[in-house]
Amino acid sequence: MKRTVTMGEVPSHPTGAARVRIAEVRSVPAAEAPSDKGTCPPSGVRVYADDGDAAMGFRVVSLHLENCGTRIHRLNGYPQLQLLDEGHKPVNGVKIFQGGSAIATGTGADGTPQPLDLKPGERAYAGLVWRNTVEGGVGKPVNAPYVRVWETPGADPVMVIPEFDLGTTGKLGVGPWKMGASGR
């Protein structure tokens, strides 16, 4: 869902007809739902994806992590990802690279992982980078609307909806966790 529309009071005799069409409906298991606000999950961290940025076949989405708990949260490395199709089934045939340079440089998804100690209220991000091209690739275009994310090995997963349209490249670059509110 790109946004939520709330209907106000509808007049009993509207002068003009309005049409609403639901283009797509996405769902995630309640136990894996992302959240960028509200009550802090039992894990003490929130993980969610932003709307991303797309231009000329090049795509960038940031994963965000906020320590909303009361203890220091340690990160070191890359988020672990599992790409899923519309039925929440694993997508095969996509190579996930550590770092964005396998896709493009200067995206914010490059660099060497550094140990991070997030104090309560602090945030981190990791960039996801891909190209939606269908030239020079092999096979049919790959679409993976869902991604199951583990911020650290053994953590509870969170399912985000970045709507990966990977084309035929079969590649996704994942940047290391970095301190800060946003990669862009």
UniProtKB/TrEMBL annotation:
Domain (DUF4232): give its ranges. 40-177
Mind telling me what this protein is named? Answer: DUF4232 domain-containing protein
Give the source species.
Answer: Streptomyces syringium
